[in-house]
Amino acid sequence: MGIKLKWPSMADQNLDAVEVYRGTTPISSANPGNPIVTLPGTATDYEDNTVLNKSIYYYRIVARKGTERAWGANTATGYFSETGPGRTTPLRGDWNAGLMDILNTTDFITPNDLAAKLPVLNNFGGRGSFSKWYKFSYKGKVLFIPDSYVVSASWNDLYLAGLMFGEAGNGQIPAGTPSPAVAQRTIVNIGGLDYVVRAPKLSNAPYSQYITTADTTASEWRSTMSRMVRATVETQADALPRFYDNTGTQSTLGPHLFTSVAAAYHNANNPAVIASAAFQTRMATYLVFELVMP
User: Fold this and answer.
1) Which pTM value belongs to this model?
2) ω into residue 241 within 30 of 0, thus cis?
3) Most buried of 54, 117, 218, 263 (most Cβ within 10 A)?
4) What is the pLDDT of residue 245?
5) What is the torsional sign of CA 186, 187, 188, 190?
């Protein structure tokens, strides 16, 4: 199996050929390279079986007649052999940042079943009672995030539970490795698939850097969960197009720090603003379940 491409019939144009171009970055018509295949002018589909797993590609379909070429738009398409429960392609957006599906907890995992798999969630300030899971694509990853908070916890709580960074090793902050150092790659198995459980990323900046509001644009959180609210909720000029029309989302902690004495968190009342909280302050916060790709 590969990536299946389809386009409207252009048979009435008497084309000489239809060309398919592919790249790992957007394709320029000024310097496109060579087509991966040249098809008859009546063609309406093509399956690319030379793709690699866990990869995103850009395609452009070109109508050729004589020396003239009419270029279709760049289309980003991902190829993943496993994406977990729900739809396997983005419903809205694309593979770089898209909403793939909205699932009931029984289709993924319920709050009680999650607490049974991660008993540490019972050690903090309370658990959330989420009722849905949002399935997102983001930069070649598949993420599952609930529609409400998972647990009431502080930055310190999540770090000491191994739920903050989601990476191999002990994590790094601007001052170095937190002390005591705790392994940060926690994995749970749900329905036979493994997921890394971690806090949401509020910025694309390295964790070793303090962040400000200016660092949130196109972050994981603002590219996914922040797009599930109405445009009247996130009114900032750099807000991305909406996926859904929820009335809002709750605040959530992330791995980044705001200052040497405060953690950064997403402000639900103003999604583009990064606020700060003491490391010991507990708040309702989300967790991300990132599919471990086979």
Assistant:
1) 0.89
2) no
3) 263
4) 87
5) positive
